[in-house]
Amino acid sequence: MTQLTVTPDSAGITDVPGFEAxxxxxxxxxxxxxxxxxxxxxxxxxxxxxxxxxxKNAVKAAPVLLCQKNLEEGGPFHGFVANSGNANACxxxxxxxxxxxxxxxxxxxxxxxxxxxxxCSTGRIGQPLPMDRVIKGLERAVTEKGRTPAHGKKxxxxxxxxxxxxxxxxxxxxxxxxxxxxAGFAKGAGMIQPNMxxxxxxxxxxxxxxxxxxxxxxxxxxxxxxxxxxxDGDMSTNDxxxxxxxxxxxxxxxxKSPRELRVLFAEAVWKACDILADxxxxxxxxxxxxxxxxxxxxxxxxxxxxxxxxxxxxxLVKSSWYGEDPNWGRLADAAGYSxxxxxxxxxxxxxxxxxxxxxGKPHPExxxxxxxxxxxxxxxxxxxxxxxxxxxxxxxxxxxEGYVNYNKSE
Length: 410
Known about the structure:
Radius of gyration: 22 Å
Order of helices and strands: EEEHEHEHHEEEHEHEHHHEEEHEEH
CATH superfamily of the largest domain: L-amino peptidase D-ALA esterase/amidase
Number of helices: 11
Number of strands: 15
Largest sheet: 9 strands, mixed
Number of domains: 2
């Protein structure tokens, strides 16, 4: 079986043949800072099919509404514009008009029609976009776009908000003597509780992919990756994952393709999403730990997820992780109130491979081992309900005073 080649810190989307990118500074935050990149443009001269997943928040930012409308119309698509520093959310009809203007200006500059461009925004909610700055930035982005690694990295930098680092990935494989690529970039550090999170993620591939197959592949990958992370339990107004397929390779992948090719493509998309999701949770605002919460033996998939999210979002649990206190009683408590079917006499809890509770009975003699485990930057907590075969995996973080101080004012 062909193996995937994974580059976790790559140039990002410009690693995909046929895609150009730019990242420019236009001071969208209006802080007289023309060094901080805050507007990204990605463009494919070849027409693309597209797929997307979006926030389930009832309050959706204007760019989300525009992206959903464009997807429904079906394309063809040629790229997207994304800005940081302003979410263009809760901005009423003017906000939607501004998002449309961004798409129109990008399209006009590149001799395309407005629906060919998606628009994404991230940043402070409730403030109008400084459109004069955005339009000037777009003009520069069109002029400065290119296909080099530097161009891809600038685009990845331009969408960051409270992130401490850019998040990029490239996954490739060879099939029938030809190399194929899935690559992308993302942002996110706070307001992270998918479905989805204050999170933007952009993926591209050089395959030709029918819209329905691309959507199915992306949705499955997002459900198992971006939708399985939490930092603070808050869902954003702007969450978006977009994927573009420009067919540059001349090879199509879809429902009628050979099984090996379909599997490889799905694995490549999943791997790219998984790495970007891990990068997001690992860069959570002021965190010190990443914890893998694994629930197994649940009576249903819904129960497994309920249990994992109750633990991963519990303030008491997250605080104990930060304090390096293996307070497994809080884990049992959260599992108990999660709404999942649970029988205490069957409950197992483990820190890595060290049991804290087996069949409802604690192991106090192992406390020194638990304490060593929770001092680590990353560790795993396993909850086995012994009531079925369903499971769920969630990546969560601790909660620090640094998070509180960072978010009490801007």
